[in-house]
Amino acid sequence: MTKYYCTQCFRNEKVIEYIKKQNLIGSCSFCESTEVNIASAEDAFWFDLIISFDFLRASPDNRGFTLERFLTRQVDLLSETVSHQTRIEIINNLFHLMLYSLDINLLHNPDQKFVANFKGTSALEKKWEEFKKQIKHTNRFGFDIDEKLKTNLVTILTNNKKTLNKGTEFYRARLGKPKGSRTFPYEEDQVMAPPKEIVSEGRINPRGVSYLYVTDDINTAIAEVRPYKGTEVSLATVQIIEDIEITSFNNTNYHGKSLHEQTELYILTNTINYELSYPIDEQAKYLDYIPYQYISELAKHLGLEGLEYKSALEEGTNLCIFNTKKVMWKSGELYKIKNLKVEAEPVNQPITDATFSFDLEW
């Protein structure tokens, strides 16, 4: 028996437009609305639509996101006006071939988690890979960047603006303590952004350009300086003294664009977010940092004052603040690392996970 979707089930304008063009009025097989525009669930349109999501993979360890959340909040496919159960039934029907191949039935397991495998799935992501090689080895200043890639980078940076409000506090760490001190940490200028005359290249800042790297979580701040057991770490609490407009690579969405554009932008955003957080070989960092330094310069050109991205080492969010004059040191504390936990597995495994956990004392 043929099933039918209706305009009430979806939020995406292109999908709604397609359903209306079928000129069918009837009852929806999913949300049970009556006397509404409907379209057959067997139309080729739906097969073409789900191709946009071929980067989705079932999570092997149940980490990641549910399809219901992703297709409702991350991209604007499904309507929030229908029930959660209705959205599950729509997804189970839309993605039935993919789910069947994975032996998954969302009706029985609606909380099944998925992850995104971006490598090679997006033309835009491929342009990014080409650009990284080009700016590192051919044209250092990015003048020959593909125009479509640059346009989409601008979209990512401007579409995901957020404000760090005056009074918001963050954390920053530095290994060690002042010479001769027993219990006092580095303070004020000793733990803030280094002078431009001595600053080396960082993940986001070029050599000679001083930015302030902070995080919203104490454990993340300490993990980011790579301590070992017994290390003493100076931890600073810093405060925003004037509103700062930044861009975020976390929890982004591009609602209103076509599903293809949304998924392309989502893939590129999350690829860059992952790369910003991923540990880089110290010997290769000078070259490997250059693409992200280009992004920071582009963000500054657009009037933004910082970038927000995830941490690979702990649960916190990292920030790189360009305008260091809008941040002040507030207080400091000296910590000592009591314990480190490392989880590892052979490099030939499909997924490698290394995590650190800290028990702190001061």
What does this structure look like?
Mean pLDDT is 88; it is low at 350-362. The strands form 4 sheets. A 5-stranded mixed beta sheet has the order 7-11-12-13-9. The protein has a 4-stranded antiparallel beta sheet with strand order 8-10-14-15, covered by helices on one side. It has a 3-stranded antiparallel beta sheet with strand order 1-3-2, covered by helices on one side. It folds into 2 domains: 4-116, no CATH class; 161-361, no CATH class. The protein is an alpha+beta fold. It has helices at residues 13-21, 44-50, 67-74, 84-94, 96-101, 123-137, 147-159, 218-224, 259-277, 285-288, 290-301; strands at residues 4-6, 25-26, 36-40, 56-58, 65-66, 113-116, 161-164, 169-175, 212-215, 232-240, 244-248, 306-310, 317-321, 327-340, 358-361. The termini are far apart. The longest helix is centred in the last third of the chain and has 19 residues, at 259-277. α6 packs across α9 (259-277).
Span from first to last CA?
Answer: 68 Å
Specify the helix fraction band.
25-40%
Spatial strand order of the main sheet: 7-11-12-13-9
How do the SSEs run, as a string of H and E? EHEEHEEHHHEHHEEEHEEHHHEEEE
As residue ranges, the low-confidence spans are 350-362
Question: Could you give a short account of the major beta sheet?
Answer: 5 strands, mixed
